[in-house]
Amino acid sequence: MKKTAAPKAAAEKVTAVKKHSGQTALLFGKYGRPSASDQALRGAVFYLMSGHGGPDPGAVGQYGNAKLAEDEYAYDVTVRLARVLMEHGATVHMIVQDPNDGIRDEGVLLMDADELTYPNLTIPLGHVARLRQYTNAVNRLHGRYGKAYQRMITIHVDSRSAGLNTDVFFYHHERSAVGLRLAKNIHQVFKRRYLRYQPNRPYVGTVSPRTSLYVVRNSYAPTVFIELGNIRNSKDQRRFVLPQNRQALANWICEGAIADYRGK
């Protein structure tokens, strides 16, 4: 994966950022508040949901003496994605928010359980209750924007056999043509980037329907559900523990979102 530069550093303390265009508070840590460098996504609204959180760390992988938790790495990629989308003029709502973890550049991200659901809700332990809470937050916000371009991207990390090296996979609702189009546009970016930066390694990530997923089935906004890799596999772990790789993942997802918005 290309070693993409992280955003330019700003204030060194963790700062809660609220944009006045109706966006929710976003925590970007030392990188501070993003400013729009262009308006490629002006008028677009994105709901970003990182997998698990609160009392549920999701999948956990062993990395030397440390443990890697799905919710921490999914959140870091998601908040990086929020920042780059905002740099292109998008309105962004982070559905899962951590009050003290912004963008982090450590390899091993420490586990905690203090994430909240927008706007300030304690995340329940029950799986279905948690997913319902997340989806309800999206659906309440959805009505604000009328016929605007609105999309939801939810980011997860898979857990499979430790020996299985996987690629990035994309899921959508079987009856959502616009959800399928967004998934395909992001997928095409990943295929091009792998061909350029890892030409000797075939990319086998796919786009497929998976309507059974709760948030895909129940979100009013067309949804793309992304699995970033296998947190138990040593090769896939490099995709997560290197901060430049987490930034590349965010940048590539954003690039696909821009392509989709231009072609809407």
From TrEMBL:
Keywords: Hydrolase. GO terms for biological process: peptidoglycan catabolic process. Pfam families: Amidase_3. InterPro entries: MurNAc-LAA_cat, N-acetylmuramoyl_amidase_3. Residues 149-258 form the MurNAc-LAA domain. GO terms for cellular component: outer membrane-bounded periplasmic space. Its EC number is 3.5.1.28. The keyword Oxidoreductase does not apply. PANTHER family: N-ACETYLMURAMOYL-L-ALANINE AMIDASE, N-ACETYLMURAMOYL-L-ALANINE AMIDASE AMIC. This is N-acetylmuramoyl-L-alanine amidase. It comes from Hymenobacter busanensis.
